[in-house]
Structures
1.
Amino acid sequence: DGGITQSPKYLFRKEGQNVTLSCEQNLNHDAMYWYRQDPGQGLRLIYYSQIVNDFQKGDIAEGYSVSREKKESFPLTVTSAQKNPTAFYLCASSIRRRGTGGHEQYFGPGTRLTVT
Amino acid sequence: GENVEQHPSTLSVQEGDSAVIKCTYSDSASNYFPWYKQELGKRPQLIIDIRSNVGEKKDQRIAVTLNKTAKHFSLHITETQPEDSAVYFCAASWQAGGTSYGKLTFGQGTILTVHP
């Protein structure tokens, strides 16, 4: 299960506070992603980054921000503007597969954020 | 943008039976269709993927079929075993050969339970 790590595993915050979730990978992957997982809704893309110092909004970017200053790191900040921040957050990195040529995503263990 | 619908949301089978999970996608330009398995408390992992130029792909007890005209694809698991119990996610994406990232749109997930 090594290669991509997220910390902490559980995080509790009061409403109105910003919180930053950590994601680190030592797989030498260029692309990294943040997903939010809610019951019955699958994985929804928040932000993704193709390369250092570059990132794009995903489908549900409102209330979130990211940075990509190093290849290994892609932290996600959940701001007070996110209306429903309580969720399970998954970070991933990807590399092209030789067979299909599609990008295989390698996921971290996730961070469960609870905001009260 | 792409929209992926996945059915059923839950599936219960007896050990040894077959299981079929179906997904439809909206963007006819999508050309890459992976399936991920998430066991309880673990991170999602890729189990099989297919390109749009292939109609079917098999890997031991799992297979994926694709109907581009109807814009749907399915996961077939034969001779199910209790360790197949997990949440399965389909996904769709357009991925060109030279792209450095693989942004995916996931389905809502199917909870598969295999009873001994």
2.
Amino acid sequence: EIVLTQSPATLSLSPGERATLSCRASQRVRYFAWYQQKPGQAPRLLMSDAFNRATGIPARFSGSGSGTDFTLTISSLEPEDFAVYYCQQRSNWLYTFGQGTKLEIK
Amino acid sequence: QVELQESGPGLVKPSGTLSLTCAVSGGSISSTYWWSWVRQPPGKGLEWIGEIYHSGATNYNPSLKSRVTMSLDKSNNYFSLRLNSVTAADTAVYYCARGVLGSSSALWDYWGQGTLVTVSS
């Protein structure tokens, strides 16, 4: 099973600042995605294939990486961006998630 | 617009069976997607439970495989989850989701709102 480790666990920033979230896999990953989850809501797909924004996702969100190291960047934080972010992979017919990064207002 | 809606009992007794259904609207369950269940214990992260294709083919998380059964009803456009021998550790919000599996993508693009299932006597 591929383990995804997200860092940091919590990120405290102010609106307008740049956010950089990381996800590291224990083995090389073929399929990778990012999700955003707000309290009381289902996860929302942000990025597919590590770097393709999903439908309706603003351009301030960008993704990069391949293999075992992936990054989600939010160029200038808006108030609605404060949430929990999860990375996800699929390998050998098994999906796993990272433990999440909580992006909170400083 | 595709919508998914979970339904089922919110309370299940220990050692009992958790049964949920996910009604799909705005799209056919017979289309080329995998239909998944994902759960989230209160205050914790996400765990994939399993998926089912319109052919009836299934893939389950090995950690739950011995207790999970998924099925689908094409005529009524819904799919179901059964998890037996439940314990308090199975208390979670259960989400159904539409899975996209392609040459470069394996993700969920539509999700239900989630339903909380509590295991307690």
